User: Which sequence fits this backbone?
């Protein structure tokens, strides 16, 4: 029977010649991952159930990224619990302040995940690694605990939506605009329980950073996973990074899909999701009368090098509006360092922005940019739910780094194509 | 297993940030977290909820983050079950894994009103609105998940293997 790319990876990890949509399987895991919010709960469950050793110390990763450097005593206590567990279990892939980055930017960068992997992570944006041609999905802490103990997880084999991309992205239109447009089209539960399989010549035209961004927000359409085919760009990215051999899977030519959606990248425009759902999409050009108080450029969605390049292109030699707080958060220490080497940091500071070391911080309303009642933020993060970045009466507008930076300059939501070279 | 209680009703896309805002996730203490359950959409919920009460939602209940703290605070707050038209997939897994009963039933989620008295039978999937007399049936769990539920959650089920 013909299978989708996701189904092929799942079949291989379940030790089955084939699987079909709806089938419940137990699959072998290549990596079990958690962060400083979800891992403590998993450790408690792991210990409460009487387990003493993780199944494989090389296949567990723990990244402290949500509230670090710790914002308060409680979060410090949670980080400490993770640190002690990682030491006791001799976890190979443990990343603390100094080496950490935002988990879903960091693990691909460090080569901890690769093509063909089957990965669970106790964080909903674990679906990011589909950009590398892996099956990767978010789960809860108890799933993480069971995965750490057994090396297996149960899955319902998903059916898939095929997203055929054609054309190439216009100037200052990015992967963020692709995924926001798609979510605007199918809704926040448009892909519920299903895979989003991206394909077509446009998929191969996209950079790896755009692919990470697109797969990252598959969950915002309810998807189980997002996935891209492996091509020479994927292999070039993994070269010199991945420590384990990778496997390339391809969807069968006659695989069945629930539906096929076509997107011509050349037709897309800078897109913004109005509060309070990612599906409330509008062209950025419609927001010119929406005054803003803050911008955030960063997160597991848009804190990578190309995102910093976009911010630099807009901000260099310019000043942000005096009423706007500009917050830029490179997602990993490698990105942070590269921004220094290239002189971006000086340009960001001269424009009136501040720069933080890697953290999820404001994205989920943790710290480092919380909004007061009535305030508005244009953010490159992934969710704009009620109260997500602070007060229940604050507003988050999701956008690309180009759009966020352009909006900072004017103090109003701005189409970045209106800003000069 | 059966439960009966008063209904708290919410709309579509109830997300994990309103079920338990991330600003409180610097602790794992279930009781402390549960004091903030549903706070950002219904500040009255924690003041009014009684053991056994029933939460009803629309489509895509529990969307957003993977935080297991979300089903945990609903369970700890005293609610006996969540009935919704559909559940976001991670919330669905988490609820099964930690033992919060959930039932998918579009007709019930449409017909039941806030404040109704409702009784549910988890084994048969029957949902009865005692206020209006209407009866609904939720789809049963697949056998595979029933085993996890019967074992008392995921950790117990893997230990039994």
Assistant:
């Amino acid at each position: 029977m013909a299978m989708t790319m996701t189904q092929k990876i799942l079949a291989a990890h379940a030790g089955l010649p084939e699987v079909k949509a709806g089938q419940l399987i137990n699959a072998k895991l290549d990596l079990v991952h958690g962060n400083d919010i979800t891992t403590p709960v998993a450790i408690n469950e792991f210990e409460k159930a009487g387990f003493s050793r993780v199944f494989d110390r090389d296949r567990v990763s723990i990244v402290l990224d949500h509230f670090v450097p710790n914002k308060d005593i409680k979060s410090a206590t949670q980080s400490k619990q993770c640190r002690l567990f990682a030491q006791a279990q001799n976890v190979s892939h443990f990343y603390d302040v100094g080496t950490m980055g935002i988990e879903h930017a960091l693990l691909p960068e460090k080569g901890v995940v690769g093509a063909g992997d089957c990965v669970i992570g106790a964080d909903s944006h674990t679906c990011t690694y589909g950009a590398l041609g892996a099956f990767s999905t978010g789960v809860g802490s108890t799933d993480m605990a069971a995965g750490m103990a057994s090396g297996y997880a149960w899955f319902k084999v998903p059916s898939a939506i095929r997203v055929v991309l054609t054309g190439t992205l216009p100037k200052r239109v990015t992967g963020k605009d692709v995924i926001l447009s798609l979510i605007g089209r199918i809704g926040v539960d448009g892909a519920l329980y299903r895979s989003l399989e991206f394909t077509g010549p446009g998929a191969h035209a996209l950079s790896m950073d755009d692919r990470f961004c697109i797969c990252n927000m598959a969950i915002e359409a309810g998807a189980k996973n997002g996935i891209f085919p492996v091509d020479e760009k994927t292999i070039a990215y993994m070269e010199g990074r991945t420590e384990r051999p990778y496997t390339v899977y391809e969807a069968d030519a006659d695989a069945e899909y629930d539906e096929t959606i076509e997107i011509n990248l050349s037709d897309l425009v800078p897109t913004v999701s109005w509060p309070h759902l990612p599906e409330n999409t509008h062209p950025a050009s419609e927001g010119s009368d929406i005054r803003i108080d803050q911008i955030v450029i960063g997160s597991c969605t848009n804190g990578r090098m190309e995102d910093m390049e976009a911010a630099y292109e807009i901000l260099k030699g310019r000043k942000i509006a005096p009423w706007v707080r500009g917050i830029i958060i490179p997602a990993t220490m490698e990105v942070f360092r590269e921004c220094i080497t290239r002189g971006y940091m000086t340009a960001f500071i001269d424009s009136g922005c501040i720069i933080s070391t890697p953290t999820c911080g404001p994205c989920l309303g943790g710290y480092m940019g919380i909004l007061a009642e009535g305030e508005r933020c244009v953010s490159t993060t992934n969710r704009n739910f009620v109260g997500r970045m602070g007060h229940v009466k604050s507003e988050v507008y999701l956008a690309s780094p180009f759009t966020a930076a352009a909006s900072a300059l004017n103090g109003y939501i701005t189409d970045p194509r209106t800003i000069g070279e | 297993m059966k439960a009966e209680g008063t209904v708290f009703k919410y709309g579509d896309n109830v997300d994990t940030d309103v079920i338990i805002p991330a600003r409180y996730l610097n602790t794992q203490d279930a009781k402390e977290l549960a004091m903030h359950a549903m706070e950002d959409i219904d500040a009255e919920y924690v003041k009014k909820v009684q053991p056994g009460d029933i939460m009803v939602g629309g489509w895509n209940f529990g969307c957003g983050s993977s935080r297991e703290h979300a089903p945990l605070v609903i369970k700890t707050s005293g609610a006996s079950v969540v009935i919704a038209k559909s559940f976001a997939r991670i919330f669905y897994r988490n609820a099964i894994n930690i033992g919060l009963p959930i039932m998918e039933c579009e007709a019930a989620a449409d017909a039941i009103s806030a404040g109704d008295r409702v009784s549910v039978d988890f084994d048969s999937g029957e949902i009865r609105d005692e206020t209006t007399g209407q009866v609904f049936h939720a789809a049963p769990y697949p056998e595979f998940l029933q085993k996890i539920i019967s074992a008392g959650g995921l950790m117990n089920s893997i230990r039994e293997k």
Remarks:
- Chain A is about 30% helix and 20% strand.
